[in-house]
Amino acid sequence: MEPRPEDLNAWVNAGFARGEAAVWRRWGFTVATARAWISAGVTTGLTAAQWAIAGVTPGTVAGWRDVGISPADAVRWHEFGVGLRAAAEFRARGVSPEQAWSQRTHGTDNPADLEVVRRFREAGVAGPVLSSYLLRQWLDEQALEWARQGVDAADAMGWRELGLSAAEGGELARAGRRPVTELREWWRVGIPFEEVADWLGAGLGPDEAAGHRANGVTVEQAARLRDQRRRRREPEQ
């Protein structure tokens, strides 16, 4: 587990201005990691966070900067699974991260592949989420629907196997729930696999659903509640 950022007073005592410290803390850095980034020439928490998202460390950031790659560009290369050496070579040839991914995947700058990536980006899909779909080559309209919800591709496949919609899976994912763990809990309370989606879609957890079921509430009633919740959700989408 990563260490938690120290309280603001500890940062001030370490020589940081309060506003500056607040930014570093907001991005989850400790005093020690902030100092490491500053020693490496990265002086703001936001920029350090961008580098960190790209998998870059204070010890490796100089290599990226030496070849002229910015933090934002490093994030894009990271999304497509390209490390520093390959990124530098592609960049020297004028190849974009999207083109590099297409070349590696299909051996060509396939316009259709680049169009897929563009659609996911324009839909606001975050980099790490997009990467999970690229790695699995799941890039159809259904994948885009799940990706828009911010659901990792592996989890999306699990939720879909349970019979949930993308909106329902997204709601659960935002609550920190995972399909494998969820299914284990439903098995624990003895609810059949084929009923899980309706109880979940109705907004109930396994223990709640088991209690209702024991009191005579049927899965058909849960399905009707699920449908009502779906219709209420639709105008928001």
Descriptive account of the structure:
- It is a single chain.
- The chain has 237 residues and is mainly α.
- Helix 4 runs parallel beside helix 6 and helix 15 crosses helix 17.
- The chain has helices at 8-13, 18-26, 31-39, 45-53, 61-66, 71-79, 84-92, 97-106, 111-122, 127-136, 141-148, 153-162, 166-174, 179-188, 193-201, 206-214, 219-233.
- Helices cover 67% and strands 0% of the residues.
- The chain is flat, with a radius of gyration of 23 Å.
- The two termini are 36 Å apart.
- It contains 17 helices and no strands.
Backbone CA Rg: 23 Å
Gross morphology: flat
Which class best fits the helix and strand makeup? mainly alpha
Low-pLDDT parts are none
Helix fraction, binned, reads: 55-70%
Overall pLDDT score:
87
The count of DSSP E runs of length 2 or more, i.e. the number of strands, is 0
Instruction: Please outline the major beta sheet.
Output: none
User: How many helices in DSSP terms?
Assistant: 17
Beta-strand residue fraction: under 5%
Question: Summarize this, please?
Answer:
By secondary structure, this protein is mainly α. It has helices at residues 8-13, 18-26, 31-39, 45-53, 61-66, 71-79, 84-92, 97-106, 111-122, 127-136, 141-148, 153-162, 166-174, 179-188, 193-201, 206-214, 219-233.
